[in-house]
């Protein structure tokens, strides 16, 4: 596991809700196998809780994944993050964004979130 510094003052926030893979597949109107492929391709992020994979509800906006999410995830994984670390980064409170990076991905600050993720690799 790669080591990534997180300042003591940074506070993780909980996603608005968790959605299992069959429900994500239904939202996206795709088979569950396609959702699993999206996870492997880092177009979507899920973590295991009590043996079940869950996706944060706000990462899926209506019938699509948030536009900038796959790019941000690619940058985070290229920087050596694993699923849990990427989830922690996306859901760490940031006073300069509206809430946390995950929340900012669905608004005008999405490009700033991607820029910050890119800076992690250097």
UniProtKB/TrEMBL annotation:
Classification via InterPro entries: Rv2175c_C (IPR041098), Rv2175c_wHTH (IPR048576), Tet_transcr_reg_TetR-rel_C_sf (IPR036271)
SUPFAM superfamilies reported for this sequence: Tetracyclin repressor-like, C-terminal domain
- The DNA-binding protein Rv2175c wHTH domain covers 18-59
The Rv2175c C-terminal domain covers 67-121
One GO MF annotation is:
DNA binding
Pfam families, per the entry: Rv2175c_C, Rv2175c_wHTH
Protein's recorded name: Rv2175c C-terminal domain-containing protein
List the source organism: Virgisporangium aliadipatigenens
